[in-house]
Design goal:
With 89 residues, the protein is an alpha+beta fold. The chain is built from 3 helices and 3 strands; from the N terminus they run H-H-E-E-H-E. Helices cover 29% and strands 28% of the residues.
Length: 89
């Protein structure tokens, strides 16, 4: 089982390396990890939740927040999605 997974991963890696026109990894973001306490410190994200619709036992809405680590790319710096909250009976 493990051997077949390893072969699959190597084959996919090789296929990606040969066929990809663009690199899918950018090393543009670098972190200074000399200060381990600062690097591993946790900050709380300011998540906004907007519940628009509701049904009998659920609520539907959207959520979003700004990334705590800014990359300079607006698409990567903001997280948005849908939220479905069910009422526990």
């Amino acid at each position: 089982m493990h051997f077949s997974k390893m072969i699959d991963r190597l084959a996919l890696y090789d296929l990606h390396r040969k066929r990809s026109k663009d690199k899918h990894f950018s090393a543009a973001f670098t972190a200074d990890i000399d200060d381990r306490e600062e690097f591993y410190s946790a900050n709380i994200a300011d998540v906004s939740i907007d519940l628009n619709e509701s049904g009998k036992n659920y609520k539907i809405g959207t959520f979003g927040y700004e990334s705590l680590i800014q990359s300079g790319n607006p698409v990567n710096d903001t997280l948005k999605g849908e939220v479905f909250l069910m009422k526990m009976i």
